[in-house]
Write a structure and sequence with these properties.
Length: 111
């Protein structure tokens, strides 16, 4: 019976090391990356909130679709924006602001 325990331990360790989720940023890292982006992009904000709409993984790259809601000094209404963030090897590589509302030419991607 001890050999089964050892075999299961080795299999669990191997699966854990080869699992793609271990090569990507963890959810804690993702939160820190988004928080850093928002605070750098809106340095004068008095408060902010961000919401992750979607994530897509491809190897060591992740694309995050995020909404930001920011209250800036001397403004009565919050500013709402949508961004696509490219995260490569756990670091923010690029950010693209995208329209909040889909226009008439926007269609879902077809496979």
């Amino acid at each position: 019976m001890p050999h089964r325990w050892i075999l299961r331990s080795i299999m669990a360790l191997t699966l854990g090391l080869l699992s793609p989720q271990f090569t990507h940023a963890s959810t804690g890292d993702l939160g820190a990356i988004i928080e850093g982006f928002v605070t750098r992009h809106f340095p004068e904000a008095t408060s902010h909130l961000w919401i992750v709409n979607d994530t897509q993984w491809d190897g060591d790259e992740m694309v995050v679709d995020v909404h930001t809601i920011v209250m800036e000094k001397q403004q009565t209404e919050a500013t709402v924006n949508r961004y696509l963030l490219l995260i490569v090897e756990g670091k923010l590589a690029a950010a693209q602001r995208v329209p909040l509302e889909d226009g008439p030419d926007c269609k879902p991607e077809e496979a």
